[in-house]
Amino acid sequence: MLTALPNQLTVDDVPDFVQLSAYYADRTPQCVREDFHYLIFGSNYDDEVGEMQVNKLLCLPVTVQELTRRERSVVSVGFHY
What we know:
mainly alpha
């Protein structure tokens, strides 16, 4: 079923995917992006690979500073479907 999903996409869906990616990129805490970049996109450097295993975490480690910074800068973004 998942392999058939891309067949249903059209050119008209591209702006929606761009908008969703911008939405999630804006709301992902910087510390999570830095800590897990190599897991998501792969590692170009040996020193990027850490010892942290995502599947063993109960929750993602987000700093208090990142949470409070995010709360102050929350902006409402509307989606149109």
